[in-house]
Amino acid sequence: MTIRAKFRVDERAERVNGGKVTLSPVMDGSEENKKFFIYTPYGRIEMGTVNEDAIKEFTPGREFYIDFTPAE
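and the corresponding structure tokens:
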């Protein structure tokens, strides 16, 4: 079973060789976001990368689907 959540980029900190990004669940902004808010877990995702091109994709305010799939 896969669980899909929708998160928004709160902040991005670029560094030499990548950076760090912080995301939080969507709550508003569209009807879809309101529906996701009902079912999306609350919390925060913080992750880092050494890929300089990848970190640039995480523009603050941009939204992403996050899929949680068991690794079996």
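(Above: one complete record from the training split.) Residues 3-68 form one domain.
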